From TrEMBL:
Pfam families: PFOR_II (PF17147), POR_N (PF01855). The gene is vorB. It comes from Fusibacter ferrireducens. Residues 252-345 form the Pyruvate:ferredoxin oxidoreductase core domain. This is 3-methyl-2-oxobutanoate dehydrogenase subunit VorB. Keywords: Oxidoreductase. Residues 15-198 form the Pyruvate flavodoxin/ferredoxin oxidoreductase pyrimidine binding domain. The keyword Thylakoid does not apply. Gene3D superfamilies: 3.40.50.920, 3.40.50.970.
Length: 358
């Protein structure tokens, strides 16, 4: 398979096209603008549909409609744009509609800065909308991983009939790296995928046939509880899908933990600290929802002195999931940047060495 040099946002879009995405609707916002821009050029080439909507709210509801018709569909935005889409995302989850979306995160609070940040973790993993629904959330640490996880996201969305989120940031979105792109699904495969959804999709039926129907929002109380119980069983089944990278943890006395671009920087810090004689390792959640609790349960708490949570967010957000599984067996400390300031290897190294000197 040939390698090609691509920007992160464009690589996500191309991977989606190759996964069979044939509908995209979005609205401009930095730093994700290259995703809809790329789709606007690419969709006509594959017989798909691109729409620049009049707003984020319109964009997500167009995706809701296209996905309800059985078409693999996607949208993307950045931070405040995702917040505007949250009601439509909730509708998709409630109606069990498979769709994929990407958040190329920017800084906060509020509308914040257009620069890269990781301040949407809690929104992504705990409250992407109303109603208590959950999604699988992927946090790529490279352009190649963004490609692979986007492709996989469409398969999992269809499998579960549930939204899937690619949680990235402006660094991954803007950087260029060589990637190997997956083989595109064929037109025949796309048709077969859509045909498999005919039992539930709103595709139109003859009057004498039983109509497919997307469950409306005004349910009876008993139906709502039944739907919530079914969703709960779905969420519990995701344990088998958890992905995590464990790097040089076997003899580690200090464990760094981070996701996305911060984890990539932390991994480099691990190697430099090792050269200086510090036994440091890294646990990198690739799925941040569900969280890789097992990786933290397997830590040797008699050997490891503390965990250092590394994030481009102030206050820290992923640290709450780390604390929930560590349960005060050892200290959980943090190393943080925000406001568009990129995490640096030197800061991580200085933080670790500073703690060691205490």
């Amino acid at each position: 398979m040939s390698r090609i040099f691509m920007k992160g946002c464009e690589a996500i879009a191309e991977s989606a096209v190759r996964a069979g995405c044939r509908f995209f609707s979005g609205y401009p916002i930095t730093p994700q603008n290259e995703i809809p821009e790329y789709f606007s050029r690419r969709m006509p080439e594959v017989g798909g549909v691109f729409i620049q909507a009049e707003s984020e709210v319109a964009a997500i509801n167009m995706v809701y409609g296209a996905s309800a018709g059985g078409t693999r569909s996607m949208t993307s935005s950045s931070s405040p744009g995702i917040a505007l889409k949250s009601e439509g995302i909730s509708y998709c989850a409630a109606a069990r509609i498979p769709m994929v979306y990407a958040n190329i995160s920017r800084g906060g609070p509020g509308v914040g800065t257009i620069h890269p940040a990781q301040m949407d973790y809690l929104q992504a993993t705990k409250a992407s909308g109303n109603g208590g629904f959950q999604m699988m959330v992927f946090a790529p640490a490279s352009v190649q991983e963004a490609v692979d996880l986007t492709y996989k996201a469409f398969e999992l969305a269809d499998r579960d009939r549930n939204p899937v989120l690619i949680l990235s940031d402006g660094v991954i979105g803007a950087m260029m790296e060589p990637v190997e792109l997956p083989e595109p699904v064929s037109d025949e495969e796309i048709a077969a995928i859509k045909d498999q959804k005919s039992s539930w999709a709103c595709i139109g039926h003859a009057l004498e046939e039983k109509r497919s129907w997307i469950q409306p929002g005004q349910w009876q109380t008993s139906e709502m509880e039944r739907a919530n119980r079914a969703a709960d069983e779905l969420y519990k089944s995701w344990e088998k899908d958890v992905m995590v990278e464990k790097y040089r943890v076997d003899d580690a006395e200090v464990i760094l933990t981070a996701h996305g671009i911060s984890a990539r920087i932390a991994k480099s810090a691990v190697d430099h600290l090792r050269k200086d004689g510090f036994k440091v390792g890294l646990i990198r959640p690739i799925t941040v929802n569900p969280f890789p609790n097992k990786a933290f349960e397997e830590i040797d708490y008699d050997k490891v002195k503390y965990i250092l949570d590394v994030e481009m967010s102030i206050p820290a957000q992923m640290i709450h999931d780390v604390n929930a599984v560590v349960r005060e067996r050892i200290p959980v400390r943090d190393c943080l940047r925000s406001g568009g300031n990129i995490m640096t290897r030197d800061l991580i190294i200085q933080t670790v060495k500073g703690f060691e000197e205490e």
